[in-house]
Specification:
Layout lengths: L5 H14 L4 H22 L1 H9 L9 H4 L8 H7 L15 E6 L7 E6 H17 L8 E5 L12 E3 L4 H6 L5 E5 L4 H11 L3 E4 L1 H14 L8 E5 L5 H11 L3 E7 L3 E6 L6 E3 L4 E6 L11 E8 L10 E9 L11 E6 L6 E2 L5 E2 L4 H5 L5 E8 L5 E7 L5 H15 L5 E5 L14 E3 L6
Parallel strand pairs: 3-5, 3-6, 6-7, 7-8, 17-20, 18-19
Antiparallel strand pairs: 1-2, 4-5, 8-9, 9-10, 10-14, 11-12, 12-13, 13-14, 15-16, 17-18
Bound molecules: zinc ion.
C-alpha cells in the first residue's frame, strides 16, 4: 500500500482530537449512523450477515437500529469459520480501496481467513498514531520492534532496517529510523541487537519484554536511551509495568487490538485505563446472558468494526473478556475499559463448574528467582500442569510452597504436576500463552 498523503493523515488526527471529547450521546449517534450504512451493505452483499440479519428481524432502512441492536445474535468465531467465503462481501461501495487478505489462528490453532479494506487499515493506522501522540512520542527518535515476522526478513544478527517509521507517523512527520527483529530470536541475542540499535522506543509482545527485562536485570545491562516500551498482541500484567519501571525506568504503553477487528482500545496517557477506539469500532461488553455490563463488571467483548466493509463483522465475540470502566478523569469521553483479559489468557475450570481467570500469577512467580518462565496448563478438570523453565529445579519444599500460594491465584487448590522443560514454545501466531486450558469451553 502506498503511504497516505500527509494532509489526509493530519486531517484525520484533527478529527480524532475533536471526537475524543464529544458528549457520549453525540458519539453514539454518529456510531449508529455509520452502523446503518454497514448493516445495509452487509445485508445486501455478505451472505452470512444477510441470513443472520433477516432472521433477527432486520428490515433495512425501516429498522430502528438502536432498539434492534441488542436483538442481533452474537456472532461466534466458529460460525465465522464455518461460513468461509459467505463471510466476505461480494462487492464494495466506491472509496473503500483495495482488499487485503490475512489469516489468524487465535489460541485455538484453527485458522480463520480475513479480509480488510484499505479504508479499515487507514483507520487502524490513524488510531496507532493517535496513541503515539497521546503518549508524547518524539517521532525523530529511533524505533525498534521485536515482532512476529512471517516474511523471515528480520533474522538475527542484522534484523531489518528502514530509514523511517512508515505508517501514518512516517507519512505525516520526519521520523527517525525503524528496525525490526524476529521474535523467535533468543533473548540474549535480542538484547545484543537492541543495544547495538539503541532505540528510544521498543515494541514487542508483553511476554517477550518481560523476558528481556529479566535478562537485563540479571546481567546488569543498563539501557539509558530507552524512553518507553510499546506492547500489543497479548495481555499486559501489572507485574510487567512494575518490572519495566524497575529495570529500565520506562513506562509500558499498550494498544489493545485483534487481528480480525483492528485497533480496539488505547491506553490512556493520564489514567490507569484504556479508551475504546469508538470512531473505528462499536465495542460492547456483555455478560453470559448477553446483557450489557456496567462499570466494574467483566464480560465478553463483542466487536463491530465500523469501516471494514470487505468482511462485515457484527457483534462478533472475539474470545476476549474485559472489565468496563467509569468515565475517565482525563477529559476524554471515549468509553473506558479498566482491564482486558485476552484470549491468550485462558480461564480455568473449577470443580464448582465455574470458569475463572487466574489472578495475577506472574506476581507469584516473580518471587522465585529460579523460575525463568512458566506456563500453567489445565490438562483435565482435576489436573493442572505447571511447565517451568528454571535455572535450577525447585526442591520438594519449594514445590509444596508454590502449590500452596498458587491455590489462591488459581481459585482452587489444584494438585499441580511440575514439569521442567528447556523452553516453552510460542503459539502459531507468535504469541506466548502463559495460561492454557485443554478442557474445552462451551461455545
Ligand atoms: Zn483517560
Amino acid at each position: 500500500m502506498p503511504p497516505p498523503p500527509a494532509a489526509n493523515v493530519l486531517a484525520l488526527q484533527a478529527q480524532l482530537q475533536a471526537s475524543e471529547r464529544w458528549p457520549l450521546p453525540d458519539l453514539r449517534r454518529r456510531q449508529f449512523a455509520q452502523l446503518a450504512l454497514l448493516l445495509a451493505h452487509a445485508d445486501a452483499e455478505a451472505p452470512l450477515q444477510h441470513g443472520r440479519l433477516r432472521a433477527s428481524g432486520y428490515r433495512g432502512a425501516e429498522t430502528d437500529l438502536e432498539t434492534f441492536w441488542p436483538h442481533i445474535p452474537i456472532l461466534t468465531r466458529a460460525e465465522l469459520q464455518a461460513a468461509d467465503d459467505a463471510a466476505f462481501a461480494v462487492r464494495l461501495p466506491p472509496g473503500h480501496g483495495k482488499i487485503g487478505g490475512s489469516a489468524t489462528s487465535g489460541s485455538t490453532g484453527m485458522p480463520l481467513r480475513l479480509r480488510k479494506t484499505e479504508l479499515a487499515q487507514f483507520m487502524a493506522d490513524a488510531q496507532a498514531l493517535r496513541l503515539q501522540s497521546w503518549h508524547g512520542l518524539d517521532f525523530t527518535a529511533t524505533l525498534a520492534g521485536v515482532q512476529h515476522d512471517p516474511s523471515g526478513n528480520s533474522a538475527y544478527p542484522a534484523g531489518f532496517s528502514a530509514p523511517g517509521w512508515g505508517g501514518h507517523a512516517g507519512a505525516a512527520f520526519a521520523t527517525g529510523s525503524a528496525h525490526r527483529l524476529g521474535v523467535p530470536t533468543p533473548v540474549a541475542e535480542q538484547a545484543e541487537w537492541i543495544a547495538r540499535i539503541e532505540p528510544a522506543y521498543l515494541v514487542s509482545f508483553p511476554s517477550n519484554l518481560g523476558g528481556l527485562a529479566r535478562h537485563c536485570r540479571e546481567h546488569g545491562l543498563a539501557w539509558p536511551w530507552l524512553r518507553s516500551v510499546f506492547t500489543r498482541g497479548e495481555v499486559v500484567d501489572p507485574a510487567l509495568r512494575t518490572l519495566c519501571r524497575e529495570v529500565w525506568n520506562v513506562p509500558v504503553v499498550d494498544c489493545y487490538s485483534a487481528e480480525e477487528a483492528g485497533v480496539l482500545a488505547l491506553q490512556c496517557p493520564d489514567a490507569d485505563c484504556y479508551h475504546v477506539a469508538a470512531e473505528s469500532v462499536l465495542l460492547e461488553v456483555v455478560d453470559e446472558a448477553g446483557r450489557a455490563c456496567g462499570p466494574g463488571e467483566t464480560g465478553h467483548v463483542l466487536v463491530t468494526p465500523l469501516h471494514n466493509f470487505a468482511m462485515p463483522l457484527i457483534r462478533c465475540a472475539i474470545g476476549d473478556y474485559a472489565e468496563v470502566g467509569s468515565p475517565c478523569a482525563c477529559g476524554r469521553t471515549l468509553p473506558t475499559l479498566t482491564r482486558i483479559l485476552g484470549r491468550s489468557r485462558a480461564r480455568l475450570l473449577l470443580p464448582s463448574g465455574e470458569r475463572r481467570f487466574p489472578y495475577n500469577p506472574a506476581r507469584i512467580f516473580s518471587r522465585y528467582p529460579a523460575i525463568q518462565q512458566y506456563q500453567i496448563v489445565q490438562r483435565s478438570p482435576e489436573l493442572v500442569e505447571l511447565r517451568l523453565v528454571v535455572r535450577e529445579r525447585l526442591g520438594a519444599g519449594a514445590e509444596a510452597d508454590l502449590t500452596n500460594v498458587l491455590a489462591n491465584a488459581l481459585g482452587h487448590a489444584f494438585p499441580l504436576r511440575f514439569v521442567y522443560v528447556d523452553s516453552i514454545p510460542r503459539g502459531p501466531d507468535g504469541k506466548f500463552h502463559d495460561i492454557l486450558c485443554e478442557v474445552p469451553e462451551p461455545d
